[in-house]
Amino acid sequence: MSYEIRLSEMEFHAYHGCYDLEQQVGNRFCVELSLTTELGDVAAEDCVEKAVNYLDVYQSVARQMQIKQRTIERVAMNIITAIKAEFPAVSEVRCTVSKLAPPLGGKISKVSVTLEG
Fold this sequence. Notes:
Elements: E1 2-14, H1 20-25, E2 27-38, H2 42-45, H3 54-65, H4 72-86, E3 90-100, E4 110-116
Antiparallel strand pairs: 1-2, 2-3, 3-4
Helix pairs in contact: 3-4
């Protein structure tokens, strides 16, 4: 049996963007993450040591958000790659990265990309 872990609305200040100004002053970003992993004995034994540690997942995402990229697509791909490398029990990752109030010349709350792997 598998289960899904969701980390919602993680917000970061980071320096991703295709414009030089974005990479200098930064912007706010939001990350949504869903992980699928095997349940194993986690629920039956109430065993936190066998569960995927949410704090460790959050810290992995935070590290990836600090690596400056030109596209949020690359940011999402980096997050998925890191999660799968650091947590071998995770079989699927769905990651949405949103740039809040992107500089597109008009009023827009966010632009988002979602990748799965």
